[in-house]
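Lab notebook page, bench 4
Experiment: in silico fold of construct C2
Operator: M.H.
Input chain length: 211 residues
Purpose: comparison with the prior construct
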Amino acid sequence: MRPPAQYGDSIAAEAENEPDPRMVSMMICTRLAGRAVIRVVGRCNEAQGNNNLDLSNCQLMQVPDAVYHLMRHTELKTCDLSDNVITKIPPKFAVKFNSITDLNLSHNQMSKLPDEIADLGSLERLDISHNTFISLPSCIFKISKLQQLNASNNHIIDVEVEAMEEAPSLEAVDLSHNPLAPRCHDRLAGISRFRITLTPREKEDWEDLTI
């Protein structure tokens, strides 16, 4: 039995008025992006007053160029970029923000740092925990005033122990929850010049052999 013409016409009209799912997705993304931009600009404005830039949890994949522009007349003391999806820090970061004493890069997707990070001459505390580093960037040990380094919860296998021991101001390093190679772990455990935090190493099968 065919539906009345009027009923069929109303169904067709509803179908025509149904929004395209792709358009809906684009509108949602645009709205979210707009909110993120507003959040970033708002926090930059706050930083101009208190010299502490907090861009944590802003859905950032990189530090927007607009941030450098907005902060060009502000001497930042701290910078928090945690809880984003940042994969790299550009070399110009160290040039633009060379007065910061505290840098939080935790909970991102970084696996390396630019050599220019060594130019952060006032930096005392650096947090790169919960990222994807497989080795500890040696440029970190060239930061002249760095006292505290948190590199826990990464995928770090190897560390340049000699370079770390030569770091001029280092006082504490957290390398816990990293799959450090046995030889590297043992060498790090022997450091006494500064405090170092390591996850206890599980012995290899051959080390448990008893004669």
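Observations: Residues 11-15, 24-32 have pLDDT under 50 and may be disordered. The first strand starts at residue 52 and ends at 54.
Next step: discuss at group meeting.
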